[in-house]
Design a protein that fits this description.
Among the domains are: 3-138; 160-318, Rossmann fold (3-Layer(aba) Sandwich), CATH 3.40.50.300; 324-399, no CATH class; 409-495, Winged helix-like DNA-binding domain superfamily/Winged helix DNA-binding domain (Arc Repressor Mutant, subunit A, Orthogonal Bundle); 722-849, Leucine-rich repeat, LRR (right-handed beta-alpha superhelix) (Alpha-Beta Horseshoe), CATH 3.80.10. Helix content is 37%, strand content 14%. The strands form 3 sheets. A 16-stranded mixed beta sheet has the order 9-10-11-12-13-14-15-16-17-18-19-20-21-22-23-24. Strands 2-3-4-1-5 form a 5-stranded parallel beta sheet, with helices on both faces. The chain is globular and about 80 Å long. The relative contact order is 0.05.
Length: 849
């Protein structure tokens, strides 16, 4: 169960809002300060025992019900505080026009609002007090954040005949371990992969290999404790290496005994299942191990790339899924007595379908095979095939408990973020930028200090989930990451999300009244109406239609959202054939994320959309018939990310120039656009600027060079655009990523693009047939890591300064015939300029140095 960990997260969020200095004065004015202080005191006492409740709820149905009741109250409290904060935002904004203010809060509305808020906070406080009164009967203890779960110990013994597959991987790891490292006393090899993929099994095979046995006179197998207790590990090493117990010895004696046991010996130490990210503990253990003979090795298994890097692994082996043929053989081994499968061809065929659902995870295959062992009723096999794996009875070796451990080890603030990912369809590639914006809309990102942007914290969240193998990176550069979730990991997200999230595919799908986040996926346009069950909800926070939208019923759905879903925060209706939006959309004061991309019948946006005080993200890409943006766009004072397509010739400076918090501006597919607005420098916080498929755009405004916060700049397929070479400007001082593609008239990069020498890390120049030379200032870009040049046939050589770009890690050259010849390894005239670069790709041929 995940309810308690979610509630810990929600409780922390509420306490943060209650403690806001900016709102304390507001509470005092409205006469609710005492009530809110009482609520805060009660909530603290409940919050402190929620982690213990998370551990105990699986064994106590009454506790689970108590937590569900608590969740309802906390969500209501969060919605209440969000409503209060919305009022506060409107009150404090200096840029809201007076007529907008009175439209939102006339004197009569203010009186009604105050009356309603005072009664609501009293009701919430009384409900919370009632729940707190029942807390004592569960005997819950206070557990500090970060307490880790236990996992069964592993061991080294295995019969090779019991293992199916992994022979090639075993050979590769053995070869690495057998290599002579010269004078290196100790080297580390890491095996990284998701839970259940077979890391421990692989290392067991290696550990028992005859060549390893002969090469390493001393072999030791340890299963790491969750906190990586160095003294405990040292005691175990002494015991296994010398058959001497030192349980009663002090720390100094244990360390001395360990070094005596290892001194001068070539050893192989397996440390299985490492979770601790505390580098100081590893360095402490490593210093004790350095007394061994040259060629000693440590093999580590972990789910985290970060841990592999932290332990300074000389080789990190990423263990992939088991091939289907091996998975099927493993399944047959566990589901049938030896050779009996040939007597049950129908079951064997069903079994192959079941194996496909396991997506190459051996532990899942073994679990399902064991469950079906000796069962010959075809109906039982069909039930398993057609069921989700997370519904299976869970024993100690099941795949979901193995994956659940990855979830349980997450910091509390990541658990709800991970569960929210269940709104995505299985197998979908997800852009980190979009996910971070969705997390932010739900209030799931917390900045440890005011100077750190929520988007930067979100990037850290995504990278941490990637490092823990819960996200599989598809493509990454700097803070832009595209990832997927393994299907079983997605099942885990669905499981831990419980009733918070659901997917509706047709009118017969059932959802509970407690659902907060709804995905409409593959919803049939032949249905006569939107799902009836959805019409009965009033607590929805997310409506998400990620692929083909909801067709011609989108307008009906929006009307339902406005009338029922008062606290809706995310509305995503991409490609839904919307033609108009109702004026009443301006009443959805809690909306933070809107995506109407691909609705190419929308011609106008209602003016009232500019009355959304909390709106952070507005996506209108490929709304190809959108005539113009509302003049009141500047009233969206919380807007941080804007993606748009419009038929306007010039973007409205009065509206866009007033968006003081805007961080992302993406202008795409604007076929009539001839100019941006001159006051671009007003966007002082703009960090990402994308201009694409604007065929009539001829020049950029000079104000663009004064975007002091700009980090990522992309220009794509603007056939008439020329980049002015302004000589008297300081340039983009924080630029990190520069992409220029499809500019036929571009001859050279202007000076103002170079940025600070320590900032620019990525340059891509593509499909620029007139481009003739890299700029002279390139040699001063001392932080450059990645340079890509594609489709620039007139670029015939590289500057001599290339050899001075010592940080450059990857060079990619394609469709540049003359340049490619000059860069051929050892033979080309420019080879000596680039020989220091680690990765070189010439027309899709990789040259590794």
């Amino acid at each position: 169960m995940a309810a308690a960990s979610f509630l810990f997260n929600i409780a922390n969020s509420i306490l943060g809002k209650l403690g806001s200095l900016a709102l304390q004065e507001f509470y005092l004015i409205w006469g609710v300060k005492n009530e809110l202080n009482k609520l805060k005191k009660t909530l603290v006492t409940i919050r402190d025992v929620l982690l213990d409740a998370e551990e105990q709820q699986a064994k106590n149905h009454e506790l689970t019900n108590w937590l569900e009741e608590l969740k309802d109250v906390l969500y209501d409290a969060d919605d209440f505080l969000d409503e209060v904060q919305t009022y506060h935002v409107l009150q404090q904004s200096q840029r809201v026009k007076q007529k907008v203010w009175f439209a939102v809060f006339s004197p009569f509305k203010l009186f009604v609002f105050r009356y309603r808020m005072s009664h609501k906070v009293k009701d919430i406080r009384e409900r919370l007090d009632s729940i707190a009164a029942d807390k004592g009967k569960f005997h819950l203890s206070v557990i500090s954040v970060g307490v880790e779960m236990k996992r069964d110990l592993t061991y080294s013994f295995i019969l090779p005949s019991d293992v199916v597959g992994r022979r090639n991987e075993s050979e590769e790891v053995v070869e690495v371990l057998m290599q002579n490292d010269g004078d290196e006393c100790l080297s580390v090899v890491s095996i990284v992969g998701i839970g259940g993929v077979g890391k421990t099994t692989l290392v067991k095979l290696v550990y028992r290999d005859e060549r390893i046995v002969k090469n390493f006179p001393l072999r030791i197998w340890l299963c790491a404790s969750q906190d990586f207790d160095v003294t405990k590990l040292a005691r175990n090493i002494v015991s296994l290496a010398s058959d001497v117990s030192c349980d009663s010895a002090n720390v100094e004696q244990v360390h001395g005994s360990l070094q005596d046991a290892l001194r001068g010996k070539r050893f192989l130490l397996i440390i299985d299942d490492v979770w601790s990210r505390d580098r100081s503990k590893w360095l402490e253990l490593r210093s004790l191990l350095m007394v061994g003979a040259c060629g000693s090795k440590v093999v580590v298994t972990t789910r985290s790339d970060y841990i592999a890097a932290m332990m300074e692994s000389v080789v990190t082996y990423s263990l992939k899924e088991l091939p289907h043929e091996d998975c099927f053989a493993l399944f047959l081994k566990w589901a049938f007595r030896n050779g009996q499968e040939r007597h049950f061809p129908n079951l064997t065929k069903i079994g192959e379908d079941i194996v496909k659902k396991c997506k190459g995870v051996p532990l899942a295959v073994k679990t399902l095979g064991s469950m079906l062992f000796a069962i010959t009723d075809e109906r039982e096999w069909l039930k398993v095939r057609d069921d989700e794996i997370w519904r299976l009875r869970q024993e100690g070796d099941d795949i979901l408990p193995a994956l659940r451990l990855s979830y349980n080890q997450l910091p509390y603030y990541l658990k709800q973020c991970f569960a929210y990912c269940s709104i995505f369809p299985k197998g979908q590639e997800v852009a980190s930028v979009m996910l971070i914006q969705l997390w932010s809309a739900q209030g799931l990102i917390y900045s440890p200090n005011e100077s750190q942007e929520l988007e930067d914290v979100g990037v850290q969240y995504v990278k941490e989930l990637c490092s823990r193998s819960l996200f599989e990176e598809v493509e990454t550069y700097d803070s832009f990451i595209t990832f997927k979730m393994h299907d079983l990991v997605h099942d885990l997200a669905v499981l831990v999300a419980q009733t918070d999230c659901c997917v509706i595919k047709n009118n017969t799908d059932s959802i509970t009244e407690k659902v907060r986040h709804v995905t409409l996926f593959g919803y049939s346009p032949s249905e006569e109406s939107i799902p009836e069950i959805l019409c009965k909800q009033n607590r929805i926070r997310t409506i998400f239609a990620p692929s083909e939208g909801v067709g011609r019923y989108a307008a009906v759905l929006i009307g339902r959202c406005i009338s029922r879903f008062k606290y809706l925060r995310v509305l995503d209706l991409r490609h839904s054939n919307l033609e108009t939006l109702p004026d009443s959309i301006g009443n959805m004061k809690h909306l933070r994320y809107i995506d109407f991309s691909g609705n190419n019948s929308i011609r106008m946006l209602p003016t009232n959309i500019c009355k959304l005080p909390n709106l952070q993200t507005l996506r209108l890409v490929l709304c190809t018939e959108l005539q113009k943006l509302p003049r009141e766009m500047g009233n969206l004072f919380s807007l941080r990310h804007l993606y748009l397509t419009t038929k306007e010739q010039i973007l409205p400076e009065k509206g866009l120039g007033s968006l003081a918090l805007l961080q992302t501006l993406s202008i795409f597919g604007c076929e009539n656009l001839v100019s941006l607005f001159e006051g671009m420098q007003k966007l002082a916080k703009l960090r990402t600027l994308v201009i694409g498929d604007c065929p009539r755009l001829t020049a950029l405004p000079r104000g663009i060079v004064h975007l002091s916060a700009l980090e990522s700049f992309m220009i794509v397929n603007c056939e008439e655009l020329t980049l002015s070479d302004w000589q008297d400007c300081r340039g983009l001082k924080r630029i990190r990523s520069l992409v220029i593609r499809g500019l036929p008239h571009l001859v050279a990069l202007p000076e103002w693009l170079k940025g600070d020498s320590n900032s620019l890390k990525f340059i891509c120049i593509s499909t620029c047939p007139s481009f003739v030379a890299l700029p002279a200032w390139l040699e001063h870009v001392t932080a450059l890591e990645n340079l890509e040049i594609t489709g620039c046939p007139k670029l015939s050589s590289l500057p001599d300064s290339m050899s001075r770009l010592t940080t450059l890690q990857m060079l990619k050259i394609q469709k540049c015939p003359g340049l490619t010849r000059r860069c051929e390894k050892d033979a080309g005239d420019d080879w000596t300029k680039i020989a220091h670069i680690q990765q070189i790709h010439l027309n899709d041929i990789t040259v590794n140095n």
